[in-house]
Write a structure and sequence with these properties.
The chain has 350 residues and is of the alpha/beta class. The chain has 11 helices and 16 strands. The termini are far apart.
């Protein structure tokens, strides 16, 4: 069993107090007893609806190597048959472990935010970078106040690349997360009306997304959608945050990562693009113009972290749409109808 963390490093990173004989280390980190793998450390995080401490026994039955629990919850847990690390606050301990993980890593780090396309772009980056090295990336859409530190803490110390999705619903949510991640490249996919329940307008959404620039490493780069109406606003905010290297992607003539040719098909797309002075021709295995736009950001980010563009472009042919994110399904309902007009279809949907 390869160790993700030695017990000594785990305790030190979290300023924890070990109880009982510790194992040599842990092979993974879990916050869910249902998906926990034997040898994982179980972090008993308290959420809005559930408290992980209530599932400590289930975690032990699933094979947890170590439990990380809060000092204040210890008396109510009774006798547990697994090693324990006691901390003041479990989520804060996870954040500390994430920071320690980032500090020990020499990987090239890419962070992705935006109103749409975050997960698709993150997964596309994971896919293509696997062609050139060892990659770690966020699971599913783990992009919030616990998902980001969890992804950091799970990052192996020998990976070559890591990709983090960072989301938000309110101002000031991205800032603390990106300062943990400290990416070399930050992508903003697009600005759209995805969070207007919490913001007055798209400008406010753009300002919140722009918090991602504040965590960039020195000499880091921002990759922005040049076709987006708020490109100039984001460009200005990136420079105001001290980012010297700002690149645009899209069809705009001034894009650094520019689409020059595109053929859309039912099950794929064929593109030619100029990426940092290189002409790249690729087949994208997942269909749709939105996927083409995301791939421009992927190619640009891959170029900026020094990945072999030929290998990255070749890997795009095997890219597939994620479940619920562009995967096409043929609906067969032979009822005799051969045509309809938009108004009639809208009436049917309503």
């Amino acid at each position: 069993m390869s160790l993700l963390w030695t017990s000594e490093a785990l305790v030190a990173a979290m300023d924890g107090r070990p109880l009982g004989p510790m194992p040599d280390g842990i092979s993974g980190i879990s916050i869910d007893s249902r998906s926990l793998q034997p040898g994982d450390a179980f972090f008993a995080i308290k959420g809005e609806a559930m408290d992980g401490h209530d599932f400590a026994t289930a975690a032990i039955k699933a094979g947890a190597g170590v439990l990380v629990v809060a000092e204040g919850k210890l008396p109510s847990l009774g006798r547990l048959t697994a090693p324990i690390i006691v901390v003041e606050d479990v989520l804060v301990a996870l954040e500390k472990l994430g920071v320690a993980s980032r500090a020990r890593s020499s990987a090239k780090i890419i962070a992705v935010t935006g109103s749409a396309g975050k997960t698709t772009t993150k997964e596309a980056l994971r896919h293509v970078l696997q062609a050139v090295g060892k990659v770690h990336a966020s699971a599913q859409s783990f992009n919030n106040h616990w998902g980001v530190p969890l992804t950091l803490a799970r990052m192996p110390d020998d990976c070559d690349y890591a990709v983090f999705e960072i989301g938000m619903n309110h101002p000031d949510e991205i800032r603390p997360l990106v300062k943990m991640v400290r990416p070399h490249v930050a992508i903003v996919t697009m600005i759209a009306a995805a969070h207007l329940g919490f913001f007055r307008n798209l400008d406010e959404i753009a300002k919140a997304k722009a918090e991602i620039f504040e965590g960039l490493e020195p000499e880091g780069a921002a990759v922005l959608n040049r076709d987006d109406a708020r490109f100039k606003m984001l460009d200005k905010m990136a420079h105001a945050a001290g980012v010297e290297h700002v690149y645009g992607f899209g069809e705009n003539a001034r894009s650094t990562f520019k689409l020059t040719k595109c053929e859309l098909h039912a099950d794929h797309s064929d593109i030619t693009a100029r990426i940092g002075g290189h002409e790249v021709t690729a087949r994208i295995g997942a269909p749709g113009r939105h996927m083409v736009q995301n791939v421009l950001a992927v190619l640009g980010a891959a170029h900026l972290v020094g990945a072999d563009l030929d290998k990255v472009a070749s890997a795009l042919a095997d890219l597939s749409a994620e479940r619920g994110r562009g995967k096409r399904h043929v609906l067969r309902h032979p009822g005799g109808s051969t045509s309809s007009h938009p108004g009639g279809l809208i009436t049917l949907i309503d």
